[in-house]
Design brief:
The longest helix has 13 residues, at about 65-80. This protein has two domains: about 1-20 and about 115-209, Orthogonal Bundle (Cytochrome Bc1 Complex, Chain D, domain 2), CATH 1.10.760.10; about 25-105, Cytochrome Bc1 Complex, Chain D, domain 2 (Orthogonal Bundle), CATH 1.10.760. Residues about 1-10 have low confidence and may be disordered. It has helices at about 1-10, 25-35, 40, 65-80, 85-90, 95-105, 120-130, 140-145, 165-175, 185-190, 195-209. By secondary structure, it is mainly α.
Amino acid sequence: MVWSAQAANAKRKAPPAQVASPPGDPVLGKDKADAERCIECHGVDGHGAGHANGPEGKFAKLAGQHPDYILKQIRDFRSGARKHDQMAIMARSVSDEDVRDIAAYFASQPGMKGEGGDAHTVGRRLYEQGDATRGVLACVQCHGAQGKGVAGLPLVPVIGGQEWRYLDQQLRDWRSGERRNSADGVMNQVLKPLTDAEVESLALYLSGV
């Protein structure tokens, strides 16, 4: 009976389509991204130049990201639903209108692209198939083929080609409960059964596609 419930959960369909918010102005957004110092960590083109290439390398790439996802994360940093001291300070200094423009700018940049992740077979299998025996949903249902996103799910991030150390940390934070700002806690549920090796393989696979 327990296995049946887990299997049903792993085969659950993607969430219903989400309504996108009004788009921002990418031209204004470029100047605002500079003025608000977003580019210092996320790169002038959203590909993680600057500090993201440093020893830690744990800053997200934003190029080609869904604007609504960026807006939600800023709101969550602002409210405390997502924890990050530096981002909380920055989030409180910008309006939603400014964030929409900044998000539109980063979204307009050529999307994230990795350099080959097929070698990480464990991560690829988990991403594409999940694991019904442990109730692990297939990531592809919500994040799309190779993590490139789903048009009707603007609150679900593009993760294919993302910086691997950033991905690895976020996956571990979902698993531990340090991060809890996904709808219905679905990310915490999906990651909880995974081992350290599986999390690392998943992050490496996604960063390479």
